[in-house]
Amino acid sequence: MATVDVVILAAGKGERLFSLTRGGSKGLLNIAGLSVLHRSLSFASELLPARIIVTTGHMAKEMQAGVESFQGSCEIEVVNSLRYQDGSLTGLKAAMTQMGPRNFFILNMDHIFPHPFAAECRKTTQQSEISIFCDQQRLLTPDDMKVCADTEGRPMRMGKRLETFTHGYIGITYVPQSQYESYREAVDRLLDSSRAPLNVEAVVDYLMDERKIRLEHVNPGTWYEIDSPDDVRRADYAIAHARGSFDRQVAPA
Question: Structural domains in the chain?
Answer without folding.
Answer: 4-220 (3.90.550.10)
